[in-house]
Amino acid sequence: MGINDRSIEGSRIGGVVINARNVSLVVVLGSAWGLAELFGRDLVSAVGLGGTTTWLAVCAVLLLGFGRGFWNKPGSSTLMGLIAAAFKVLGPFLFYCQLLGIFAIGLFFDLYASILLAKGRSSWWRQALVGALTVY
Fold first, then answer.
1. Residue 43 DSSP SS3
2. Whole-angstrom distance, CA of residue 1 vs CA of residue 102
3. What is the C-alpha separation between 92 and 36, in angstroms, rounded?
4. How far apart are CA 31 and CA 38, in angstroms?
5. pLDDT tens digit sequence for 12-34
6. Are the C-beta atoms of residues 36 and 60 closer than 8 Å to each other?
7. Residue 83 contacts residue 31 (beta carbons within 8 Å)
């Protein structure tokens, strides 16, 4: 196996293949979630929709589900939550409870998805249960 073959295949850490596509997908989706947290509250308020926190949580769960659909590995959703929380630090107001809440959504989604969507056990009701348990 040559050097180029290894870069295409990715690195194997603890049985999980980590390649540039998977990491870049997690970074892009985590950044999209972080930008939604930064600018979404004002956007939702300007449109006139109520419950800005609810809409941001829906956006977060959709992005987490999208990311998990492409890379169903434990830790990927937690990393997305960490990236989104890092974006929230750049906002005009810093509330640590918001940072913890954003990170917790990613962590709990990761926990439930890792348990319920293990290899060979994925079904439509398990996927729906992951989202419902995360926001509950």
1. helix
2. 41
3. 14
4. 10
5. 555 556 788 888 999 999 999 99
6. yes
7. yes
Q: Are β-strands 11-13 and 16-18 bridged in parallel, bridged antiparallel, or unpaired? A: antiparallel
Chain segment 47-103, per-residue pLDDT in tens: 888 778 888 888 999 999 888 888 888 899 999 999 999 998 888 888 889 899 999
Question: Could you tell me which of 78, 61, 62 has the C-alpha nearest to residue 26?
Answer: 78
Strand partners, 12: 17
Crossing angle of helices 20-47/96-116, nearest 10°?
A: 130
CA within 13 Å, CB half, 100: 3
- Give the closest residue to 19 by CA, choosing from 31, 6, 28, 29: 6
| pTM greater than 0.85 | no
For residues 100 and 89, the answer to whether their CB atoms sit within 8 Å is: no
d(CA 35, CA 49): 19
Pair 10, 18: CB distance under 8 Å: yes
